[in-house]
Amino acid sequence: MNCVWVGWRSLLAIVVLPVVLVVLNPTPARADYWAPQPVSGSGGFLALASFAGVSCSSASQCVAVGTAPWGTGGAFASASAWFGSTWTPVMPVAPPPTSSTFTVLDGVSCTSGAFCTAVGGYETNGSSDSQTAWAVNWNGSAWTNETTPSLGLPSALHGISCTSAPTCMAVGWQGNQALAEAWDGANWIVEPTPSLTEEASLSAVSCASASSCMAVGETGTPSSGSFSPLAEWWDGSSWTVVPVQLPAGAQRASLEGVSCSAPTTCMAVGYYDGSGGDETPFAAGWSGRTFVVEPPALPSGWPYSSLSGVSCRAANWCLAVGGASNQSYGTETLAERWDGANWTIEPTPNPDQDPEVTILNYLNSVSCVSLGQCEAVGGAGGTNQWLAEQRSESTPVVSAVSPRKGATPVPGPIIIRSDSKFSGRVKPR
User: Where are the domains of the chain?
Assistant: First the structure.
C-alpha cells in the first residue's frame, strides 16, 4: 500500500472523450483453464521470494520481475523469462548505479522478445529515506541500466507500459507525490503529475497509445489510516486527475492495477475496506468520463481478498488476479474473468504444501496475449518460491482447489501486499 486520503477532492476534473468500444465474442468462462508452471531457481530463501510484474509479447515470450530476499533486511532484484516450456532466470540483473543491499523490480513491459523495460527502486544506505527510482532494459540476452532523472527526493517506480521499443511511460512516487517518467528511446524525462494536497502514489499504468495512458494508485494522509483511489490520464502532453466512483460502504480504497484495451476503454482493480474492516475486491471501468464500479465476485469462505493486477484484450474480456484469505488457512490465489457485464471467479492451482503449514499463495500480475492465453505471477510463501501460472482456453488442465483442512490458524487477515510505497517489500497485513 502506498498512501491514505480522507474524503473526495474537489480537484477531480472530469475528462470527456469520445467513447470507442471493442467488443469481441470470447469463449464462455470455464473453471479448469489454469495450470501451474515450473520456475527454475525457486526456493531456498530466508523470506518470501515473489514476482511482482509480468509482461508477454507472445505466447512463448514473457518476462517476469520481482525480488528474492536474502540475509537480514537485504534483497536482490530477480527476473525470469518464459520461452514456452519453463521459467528460466535471466540474471544477474544489472546492478543500480550505486552499491545497494536492497534492489527491487516491481513492473515490466515488453514489446518483443528483444525489448523489455523493468522498473523499481534501490536503497543506497539501507534506509527507506535513500530509495531511488531505477530502470533497466532487457535486449533478449542481457540487462543494462537506464539513467533516471535525479529527483533530490526518495523515489521509486512501480509500473510501466511501453507502446513501442522507444516509447514507454513509468509511474510511482517521489517524496509524497505521484511520479511519472517517459522514455523517448534515449532518456527518461519527468512528466509532471497534478499536485495534490494529500500524499499520492501511482501503482500501475497502461498505455493504449503514446498519447493515451491511464495510471492508478491512491491518495491520502498516511497518519490518518484512510485513503482513496487515484486515477490520472495522460493525453500525450499532460496528466489529468480522473474521477473514481467508490463502492457502496467503502471506508477506504486503493487501485493497484489497470489495463486499457483501447484509448477510452480501461479496467482498474484493487481493494476496499468496508465498515467491518474486511478487505474486498474492487474493480472499476472507464469509458472516457468516470471510473464506474464493476463489482467483482466475492470468494465464498474467504472474507479478506483483493485484486492486484489486470489484463484486458477487449472491452468485454479482462482477467484480474490477486489473493483471497481467511483467518484459518492463510491466502490462496484468486483469478476473476470479466465478460463485459459480470466478473466470474476461476479456480486456480496452489502449490502443494504440508497441510499443517499456513498457506501464503498469491498472484500479483497478469499478462494476456490473446483471449484466453495469459501468464500470471506472484509468490508461494509456504515454500519461499516464485509462483507462475498459465491460463489457456485451448487445454483445460486443472480443477477447483478447495481450502486446506487442518492448517495452522493465523491471528488475522494475511493478504500479501507491498510495504508502504516500496512495493518490493512484501509483508502480511
Answer: 34-420
Structural contact between residues 116 and 105, judged by C-beta atoms closer than 8 angstroms: no
Cβ-based burial of 6 (10 A; exposed 0-12, middle 13-18, buried ≥19): middle
CA 265 to chain centre: 19
Partnered with residue 102 across adjacent β-strands are 75, 123
Whether the predicted pLDDT of 29 surpasses 80? no
Q: Which three cell numbers stand for residue 45?
A: 530463501
- Non-local (6+) Cβ contacts of 22 within 8 A are 261, 262, 265, 314, 315
The span from the CA of 250 to the CA of 401, in Å, is: 30
Tell me which architecture the domain covering 34-420 has in CATH: 7 Propeller (2.130)
Dist. CA 120–CA 294, nearest whole Å: 30
pLDDT, mean over the chain: 81
Say whether pLDDT at 24 is over 90.
Answer: no
Burial of 151 (0-12, 13-18, 19+ CB in 10 A): middle
**314 pLDDT higher than 70:** yes
Asked if omega into 92 is within 30° of 0 (cis), the reply is: yes
194, 198, 204, 205 alpha-carbon torsion, rounded to 10° = -10
pLDDT tens string 74-130:
788 999 999 888 899 887 777 777 777 788 999 999 999 999 999 999 987 766 678
